[in-house]
Amino acid sequence: MTTHKTICPYDCPTTCGLLVEAEGDRIVKVRGDADDPKSRGLICRKMHHYERSIHSQNRILTPLKRTGAKGEGRFEPITWDEAIDTITTRWKRTLDEVGPDAILPFYYSGVMSFIHRFCGDSLFNRMGACSLVKTLCASAKGAGYSAVMGKTGCLDPRELADSDFYIVWGSNMKATRLQSMADIVAARKSGKRVVLIESYAEDMASHCDQVILIKPGTDGALALAMMHVLAEEGLADTDFLLKEAIGFESFRETLTSYTPEWAEGVTGVPASVIVELAREFGAASAPAIILGSGNSRHGNGGMTVRLITILSAFTGAWARPGGGLCGCGPGGGPFVDMARITRPDLRTNTARKVNINQLASALAGEDGQASIRCLHIYACNPVSTVCHQQGIVRGLLNPDLFTVVHERFMTDTARYADIILPATFSVEQADCYGSYGYCSFGAARKIISAPGECKSNWEIFRLLAKAMGYKDSHFDRTDEELLEELLAHPEPDLLKLPEEALDSLRTGGQVFTLFADHTDWETPSGKMMIVNDELATPMPQYLENHGGEYPLRLIAAPSSATLNSTFLEREDLVAGRGPMTLVMHLDDAASRGIADGDSIVAFNELGEVRFEARVSSLVARGAVVAVGVFHSGRSMNGNLVNTLHHERLSDIGEATTLNDNTVEVRKDL
Ligand SMILES: Nc1nc2c(c(=O)[nH]1)N[C@H]1C(S)=C(S)[C@@H](COP(=O)(O)OP(=O)(O)OC[C@H]3O[C@@H](n4cnc5c(=O)[nH]c(N)nc54)[C@H](O)[C@@H]3O)O[C@H]1N2
Ligand SMILES: Nc1nc2c(c(=O)[nH]1)N[C@H]1C(S)=C(S)[C@@H](COP(=O)(O)OP(=O)(O)OC[C@H]3O[C@@H](n4cnc5c(=O)[nH]c(N)nc54)[C@H](O)[C@@H]3O)O[C@H]1N2
Ligand code: SF4
Ligand SMILES: [Mo]
């Protein structure tokens, strides 16, 4: 038995350190690494039995070729030679007949590493294929935050111990920030208050002193009204804002119209609650807002985050330890030179850009461009996770489309493939990882051999490049060699670290940079930007979200049992979730004659999805919530919740607006 350090590869802010015990090519035990200062040995239940995913009976172990109709799910094993030859023959024909704009590489966050996540870019740059705009998650949040703060690092969760008042704003921390829950629990034990602002509070309510339920997509109005009260009552730190920010005075003038009474009408939060919250926030010395990403996935999502970011600095909290905003990028990096992986220099044309959220339109040829003829999907499950599910499925059924899916399991997307290629797990490859929630970076080595004929993303792209006739030496290197090259050419944040820290990366491990200096504003002017003239809307203000004609606002919330569609292969995790449920408020259920456990149909102009109703008082009136992503096999009519999601983008950041759709719900008779 051997024990190895490795890193959780999934799309989660913590990149927990793991200790993995292996017997030959079998992983027998996985536990948290107590030496990792972020997770302190605490890992989530999903990764406790990582080995059950790695050695699952359901893993795809050979390349497969479709034998039935598209989407029917019938395949037969083929050799790697046949798979690579079939794919590259098709690519060459498409390049000749249509051109590189008809080839779309499609990936997102199945593996969050630097090499195996981004390595396909080098091949597709070389080919001149489409370039995917990867904004499926929190790009509106990033754009809203940086519109105010530029590259200034926000709070690392480890700094929350110094805060004296907490607002958990639209984050199910129990599911998505498990490691920071201990800080919240400790804070409350020591008498500090925690307030939750959520549209759906079932998981978090018992961990907070107060729950404020808000109509989805209206958080910007709440932030504005809080700033109205802070300004009116002399609780804004005027000296700080005049000195450190651009545009405070003109913004303050606009606040007069954003009264708590106005905000009550928009948000559904009583004016008295808004006033009280603003006073409490203003009285705290180092209040921290822990911001989730849910409220950024709206048509007004970038503006919402801009307003919450300004609020976080409105009392001068950023200048005091523990005060400010957590959850928007704590800084750290660059650690390695990504261009050594993605190789933009290999591209000789101007890429056609396709937004990841608009796959259905791209497949249908609706964006005024040629329709996509070859789709190459890896580390992503768009049928389950991207908006407009029925449009995507229609596109995948097109007989003229050639689809390759590189996967570990028969996902809802893989079923529509013409060729499936068997993929690897993190412990079967070498890579490096940057955390998006903490100031850290780590490297992980291969621990076991891949089973069957599974190959890593990079091994496959190398084979494809060779078969395409690309002679660039880049495609000769293994992942180990690429990792060595990255570590041999460190970027600024690695260079700051002592030699011993860098050595620990060579053997697999993580390194930590200092927390950001939160008042060293990394913006062009060296000041915070309350007013930002670079934007189409320089003055922060209330924007409506996209909305729609149906009465209920539909949002998605993360499930603690799964991570987007990852872990759906694990019966031990998904069985406990039961059927696909839609959570709705008692009053909204009663007015429709719906009781807990009823079969219901949620519908809008895009389609219908069947759910089981769960009736709750911990969801905002007028909101309905689909918790977690499901396999279509668990859906009562085969449709998943993303059937009800439009492809519309956010105000800034070109991001998903997954939480900004309206529906009506009826009892399924
Ligand atoms: N267990 C588990 N862990 C995960 C994930 C998972 O699916 N499961 N997902 C991973 C990924 S990809 C990411 S991006 C991260 C973060 O994942 P996110 O999905 O961003 O989750 P949270 O940050 O917890 O924020 C989502 C919360 O926003 C709320 N919400 C939605 N709309 C609104 C609104 O308009 N206003 C307010 N106030 N609240 C709203 C939802 O009710 C939900 O509780 O977590 C990662 N970790
Ligand atoms: N309804 C609903 N939709 C959502 C969300 C939601 O909460 N609800 N969350 C949204 C968010 S925040 C995000 S970030 C996206 C994420 O959406 P996706 O990017 O689709 O991520 P996952 O659903 O985790 O699926 C990733 C797939 O990658 C595969 N995979 C893992 N590692 C590798 C590898 O090394 N190589 C290859 N080839 N494949 C690999 C896994 O087996 C898995 O099937 O979903 C979004 N969509
Ligand atoms: S999924 Fe998140 S909480 Fe779980 S082990 Fe991975 S990084 Fe840690
Ligand atoms: Mo995400």
Automatic annotation (TrEMBL):
<comment type="similarity">
    <text>Belongs to the prokaryotic molybdopterin-containing oxidoreductase family.</text>
</comment>
<feature type="domain" description="4Fe-4S Mo/W bis-MGD-type">
    <location>
        <begin position="1"/>
        <end position="58"/>
    </location>
</feature>
<dbReference type="InterPro" id="IPR006657">
    <property type="entry name" value="MoPterin_dinucl-bd_dom"/>
</dbReference>
<dbReference type="GO" id="GO:0051536">
    <property type="term" value="F:iron-sulfur cluster binding"/>
</dbReference>
<dbReference type="GO" id="GO:0046872">
    <property type="term" value="F:metal ion binding"/>
</dbReference>
<dbReference type="Pfam" id="PF00384">
    <property type="entry name" value="Molybdopterin"/>
</dbReference>
<dbReference type="InterPro" id="IPR009010">
    <property type="entry name" value="Asp_de-COase-like_dom_sf"/>
</dbReference>
<dbReference type="GO" id="GO:0016491">
    <property type="term" value="F:oxidoreductase activity"/>
</dbReference>
<protein>
    <submittedName>
        <fullName>Molybdopterin-dependent oxidoreductase</fullName>
    </submittedName>
</protein>
<keyword id="KW-0408">Iron</keyword>
<keyword id="KW-0479">Metal-binding</keyword>
<dbReference type="GO" id="GO:0043546">
    <property type="term" value="F:molybdopterin cofactor binding"/>
</dbReference>
<dbReference type="Pfam" id="PF01568">
    <property type="entry name" value="Molydop_binding"/>
</dbReference>
<dbReference type="InterPro" id="IPR006656">
    <property type="entry name" value="Mopterin_OxRdtase"/>
</dbReference>
<dbReference type="InterPro" id="IPR050612">
    <property type="entry name" value="Prok_Mopterin_Oxidored"/>
</dbReference>
<keyword id="KW-0411">Iron-sulfur</keyword>
<dbReference type="Pfam" id="PF04879">
    <property type="entry name" value="Molybdop_Fe4S4"/>
</dbReference>
<dbReference type="InterPro" id="IPR006963">
    <property type="entry name" value="Mopterin_OxRdtase_4Fe-4S_dom"/>
</dbReference>
